[in-house]
Write a structure and sequence with these properties.
mainly alpha; 5-stranded mixed beta sheet; globular
Length: about 475
């Protein structure tokens, strides 16, 4: 199989597509389930499609380009998990093509080959948690484009300024899809300083390119009078993060065991062989530094298997070197086959819980749970006062208050004029919630301080308040 992909024939990419589809096929046959992150994205897309403005009438810390993408998907497909997974697969496959083109044009290897494409695709398929269209997946496309320009600068020391400017622009757009990706702007500057003879003016160009898309988005929010709201939400998440860890470190390490094992083998093999040009050695050193510095993202981000997507380009570059360095054809084929089988086996083991593997890889925190409120809120506009997104799975969001961390301070203490005004506008700017589920005992204070809520909501049972008939 490895020798098949080493042939520089464009038709091989069709087999890459089919093979990656086969890896995911059991998951599709079993039936795609909506996870907690998927539900969050559904609610964001639906709310924006119904006329809410991000950060103003929808309190959620998602980056704007991802939010607007989910809004577009809701316009086109509604709450379709199949749409998310289909587009996620096509975007992943596009990244395989892009990654393969980057390694070929920048001469990372001594031969033209499609091995980088299949290695990248297999690494992107190590867990079903990576299959859906996530902000990290969208952001990583632009990080790949930036990495391509960095390689070109290291190799050619380009005289033109456009690719240097492009590095900043790509990374700025990446941050607008996923805010923690902004750290790659700093990493790019450090990489250019250590691995190229870039002149000082060009560092300013990278910074300008990075700031340009962010400034354009800030201008948009300025014209809709939303800069203060946007900054308040972004600053809260930057300086006072309340991360929810979907996976334990043990689960992440077990999911990544095969890639990590091959990565370690690859590093050892590269050090032993050292059959590279000076340029290739610089690129290998570059990607290792890129990967090590990217570990800071793990501190910032929530523990999700999708977080590994940012490391996949560096892993794929090093692991591909490993396969191409093996001179014994039988050994190379065997190790590559084990790599493919290992990825497929881990997917199937987690899907069907072979050998009770899910006891050690616990992804239950990503799964939607049945709640006692499901039948009450089905097909209703609701507001959940508390940190329980599961209740929304059969309902629609009413009011801006989706993210409980961002909303709790206002909703728990409504006895200040500014907070009362924001809550009142949240209830009256659009259709008010038909049902309020109060998990934090906020409603007594809300009814005391806000006449609209006092007049229009009645408690029907524990934690449940309903909108009175005839209220719009």
């Amino acid at each position: 199989m490895l020798s098949f992909f080493r042939i520089n024939d464009p038709s091989r990419i069709i087999i890459v597509f089919i093979l990656l589809l086969v890896v995911r096929l059991p998951f599709y046959i079993q039936g795609i389930t909506i996870t907690l992150p998927d539900l969050n994205h559904f609610l964001i897309g639906e709310s924006l499609a119904n006329g809410s403005s991000l950060y103003i009438s929808l309190w959620e810390d998602i980056s704007p380009f991802s939010a607007w993408t989910y809004m577009l998907l809701h316009f086109l497909f509604g709450k379709s998990i199949w749409a998310y997974h289909t587009i996620g697969f096509l975007l992943m496959f596009f990244q395989c093509l892009l990654f393969n083109a980057i390694t070929y044009k920048n001469k990372l290897y001594n031969e033209g080959t499609y091995v980088p494409a299949i290695v990248y695709g297999l690494l992107m398929s190590i867990s079903s948690g990576m299959y859906s269209l996530s902000p990290i997946l969208m952001s990583s496309t632009f990080i790949l484009l930036a990495l391509n320009n960095i390689f070109r600068q290291v190799e050619f020391r380009m005289k033109s300024d456009e690719p240097i400017l492009g590095i900043g622009i790509y990374l700025g757009v990446a941050a607008l899809f996923y805010l923690p990706a902004a750290i790659f702007g700093l990493i790019a500057l450090i990489i250019l300083a250590f691995f190229s003879s870039t002149i000082g003016r060009r560092y300013v160009l990278v910074f300008f390119g990075f700031a340009l898309p962010l400034l354009l988005v800030i201008c948009y929010f300025y014209f809709i009078d939303g800069v203060a709201s946007a900054w308040s939400i972004v600053a809260t998440k930057i300086f006072n993060p309340n991360k929810f860890d979907y996976l334990s470190y043990q689960s992440i390490l077990l999911i990544l065991a095969i890639p990590l094992l091959y990565f370690i083998f690859s590093i050892v093999r590269i050090v032993q062989k050292n059959r590279f040009s000076n340029y290739q050695l610089r690129l290998i050193q570059l990607v290792i530094v890129w990967m090590l510095m990217s570990l800071f993202l793990m501190i910032w981000m929530e523990k999700l298997v999708t977080s590994f997507i940012f490391f996949i380009p560096t892993f794929a570059i090093i692991i591909t070197h490993y396969f191409l360095l093996i001179k014994n054809r039988l050994k190379a084929e065997m190790l590559f086959s084990l790599f493919m089988i290992g990825v497929l086996y881990l997917n199937l083991a987690m899907l069907y819980n072979w050998f009770s593997v899910n006891t050690y890889i616990d992804n239950s925190h990503e799964q939607l749970l049945i709640t006692s409120y499901d039948d009450k809120v089905a097909d209703k506009r609701i507001l959940v006062l508390g940190d329980n997104l599961h209740i929304y799975k059969k309902a629609s969001l009413a009011t801006p208050f989706l993210d409980w961390q961002l909303s709790s301070e206002t909703l728990k203490e409504p006895n200040y004029y500014g907070k009362s005004a924001r809550i009142y506008l949240g209830f009256t700017d659009q259709n008010p919630p038909e049902i309020i589920i109060d998990l934090e005992n906020c409603m007594p204070k809300l009814q005391k301080n806000i006449m609209f809520i006092q007049d229009n909501y009645v408690r029907t049972e524990a934690n449940v308040y309903r909108l009175k008939q005839g209220t719009n």
